[in-house]
Each structure stands twice: as structure tokens, then as C-alpha cells.
Amino acid sequence: MKPSEVPLDAVQEYAVKERVCIRPLLRRVIDRETGEAVLVALPCQSTRESRCPSCAARARTLRMHQCIAGWHLEEEPDVPVRLKEPPAELETSEDVATTHRGRTTRRRTDAADLPRRPQEDRTIGQVFRASDGKMYRPSMFITLTLPGYGRTVAGTGTPQNWREYDYHRAALDALYFPRLLDRWFQNLRRCAGYKVQYFGAVEGQRRLAPHFHVAIRGAVPRAVIKEVTRATYHQIWWPQMSRPVYVDELPVWDGMDYLDPTTGEPLQTWAGALAQLDLDEDAQPAHVIRFGRQIDVQGLLAGTPDAERSVRYLTKYLTKAVGETYADQAHDAAYEAHIDRLHDEVRWLPCSPSCANWLRFGVQPKEAGPGLVPGWCFSKAHDREHLGVGGRRVLVSRGWSGKTLADHKADRAAVVREALEAAGIEVESAGRMAAEVEASDGEGRFVWAAVVSHGGTSAEVLMETVLERRRWREQYEYAKSRARADPPVDSRSATARTPGMRAAG
């Protein structure tokens, strides 16, 4: 049977087994010197298993190596860590604390005070001497959760009584969970006495509330971690988000402002709403988010089975969206209804100052323009599969390993390339069709163009990609056998399944 005659679903199943992208991006590359045109398939690089299992698995593996690379460092990484700056990786849409200009920063009376310790200029953990004379440099694995919103049925995550379940608060907590994590890291660094570095992942619990697994470099007393968690909160000083003003008839755009559909009066602007909030002495925050009582703290040592197991557990659900985490319960009508009710709240609540949902609450979004429709905000946080978690799932501090994710990916490819070159195997893709390759006239030799395929990727193109990947893998296995040793397992390690040799990609 010719490759073109093989059913596409069969080829895709085979591609998944070979860890090859099943929905590659097609590019036509023209060599300006020879006139030759070839079709190149680039991996889609999706991080979702439901879209491409192969690319999602590679992305998870790369994150695992990034986590391992920085967790138990014994020397400071060559990256400046600025303690006073919030972690850039959180990428919240706007710092809510600074949005409200006139509000006091005094701590709430119902929150515990935070201890302060003198700060040491280090990011690595301390070394401890055991009774047997051995030296240890422990690190930590911590799990943080949100509070409960009502009683749930054991083992299912569904509410015992959905009418008593606080879906509104659950949705708000999910939308602003990254801001609470940002505050927790700031507080922990002040209380730990050194520049704590972290690698964490946001995941969904069975009850659909997000929780956070985080690897911490160095050891912090458990009592301090629990005290910081209890004392951490975040206030959102925005206009009220509990009572919609417009439900059936929505405001209309007149070219300059959104107008009340009945009176024709312009809605309050975002700046005006904040100014009014500043003048109200009795104003309360629109929402206050805190952690739940459940917190798990473990001390771990490098190279132990518990540490390796924690890395796999930390990245376990990175290939799934929050709404897909417990997809095995999709056949359960009660669980599906639970997802729908939470999504209904998440869809209509504001996620940022520029969210279109502010129109429902009688406020024009920040920098408002035409075409805003409540319930159709561009942020993926409102989608059913994300259920409020719209930012990055992996949060990594700047000083974690001294390298970016792209650096780790390049290092893993370099290990494979070096092994092949040491075995005398020519790496065809090292400079093939690269953008920096010049022709005789000094201009770029290769011209890349996207290929629009209305029928999707053909079975023939996908099969060629699978065969090419198999040939690369066989070459790599041969190179390893020639060296009589596996490549080193460190931040630059690469498995036989992820050669990453395609220069065009």
C-alpha cells in the first residue's frame, strides 16, 4: 500500500507512537540558487494533549528538565535576581494593588502580621550537617490550595447542594489566583531571609478550583511557610462585580462612548469609576482572595526517589487544560453540570480593566472601543476548558536555573548534535535551509512561505515526517552505542525520543 493510500487516522496513531507531531505546520522552502522547492513540516508545538499528544509530551519533558536544572543548585546561577521586582513570569494583566491610587496599603485587621528577617544575598539553600557528619542541602515541595465554596461529594468534586455552592466566589478566586501567588512569593521572600527561587505549576483540583504545586530551592521552616500562607491575601480595588446593571439590554457604542440603552447617557468611564472609589471613605474592595487551610510541605534532597517523583507529579497535568484535568468524569451528568455552572460565572465576570464584561456592571472598560460584547472577552480565562486560569500554567522565577526555556531546548539539541558528530555522522539539518544562510548575492538563500491546506495534513506528508524522525533516532542510537555511554543527564540532557535536530524548525 502506498503512503498516500494509508488512512490518515492510522498514520496519526503511528505518529503518536513515534512521538511525531500529528498536525504539523506546512512550509514551502525555495532555494534561490538551485530553484528547488521542498515541503517542510514543522511541529505545531501545542502544549495540549487533546490537540497533539506528541508536541505536548515534548513540552512537558522540557519543563521537567527545566525544573531539575534549577531545583538543587549548589552554586549561584549567572543571572541577576532583583528582589524588589515581582516575578515577570506571572504576567498578570495589571497590578490590582497599584490600580487604586488612593487606597491605603495598611494590612487588614483580620489578617495576621508577617514576620521580617534580615535578607541574605543568595538564592541557593543552606547546607546542614547531620549527626553522622554528612552535609545536606535540602529543598522543598509545597502545594497551596484555595478555600472551599461548599460541601462536595467525596471523591467526585461535585457539590452536595449546588444552590448553596458559592460559584461566584469560586470564579473570582480562579480569575485572580495568579495575583495571590505573586503576593505569596513576595511575602515568602521577606520572611525566609533570602531570595527564594521557585518552579511551580497551576493545576485544577477535582472540584475545579486551581491549586499550585511549587518546587522551592533551599529550605524554609515549615512554620514560616504556614504562617506566610495564612497571612497572605490580595485585595482587588475595582468597581463592584456582584450585581449586574445590564443583563437583557446592553449598552450601545455611539462612536465615542458606550451609552445606557434606555436613557442614552454615557456609562461611567474606568478612570471615573476609580476616582469615585477613591472619594468613598467607606468603600470596600470588590474582592479579597486568600488561600485555603490545606497546605502540604515536604523537604527533599537531590537525587532521591522522592525528588524525582515530585518532578513528575508537579508536571503531571501540564498537557491538559483545567477543564480537561478530570475528563474521565465527562460522562457524569452532575460533574458536567458543575463545570457548566462555574463556566457561566467565569464567562460573565471581568478578568481585567479592559474586559468587555465591565459593560454589564455599568462601567466602560479601560481604553474602551467599538465591538465590545459582554461574554465574549478575548481572554482565554473565560473559556470552558480554562475556567478562569487564563495565564501561564508554569511559573518560573528569573534566577531558577540561569537559563530560559529556549536555552534549555537549545542545550538538549546540542547534546544530540555533539553525539552525532562524535560518531562521524553528518548532521544534515544543522544548517539546512536556515534563515541566516546566504546566497552568492549576499541575500538569504532560502525563501520560506506558508502552505494553506484546506484538507489538513495529508497522510503522505505525515508518513514522510515519521520516517525521517525514525532515521534520525536510529542515527542517534548508533552514536550512543559508539560512545558506549548515554549522554549526560543534566540541564542539557536529551532522550532518544527527542532529538530536536530539525534546523528548519
UniProtKB/TrEMBL annotation:
<protein>
    <recommendedName>
        <fullName>Replication initiation protein</fullName>
    </recommendedName>
</protein>
<dbReference type="Pfam" id="PF20199">
    <property type="entry name" value="RepSA"/>
</dbReference>
<feature type="region of interest" description="Disordered">
    <location>
        <begin position="480"/>
        <end position="505"/>
    </location>
</feature>
<feature type="region of interest" description="Disordered">
    <location>
        <begin position="86"/>
        <end position="119"/>
    </location>
</feature>
<dbReference type="InterPro" id="IPR046828">
    <property type="entry name" value="RepSA"/>
</dbReference>
<feature type="compositionally biased region" description="Basic and acidic residues">
    <location>
        <begin position="107"/>
        <end position="119"/>
    </location>
</feature>
<feature type="compositionally biased region" description="Basic and acidic residues">
    <location>
        <begin position="480"/>
        <end position="489"/>
    </location>
</feature>
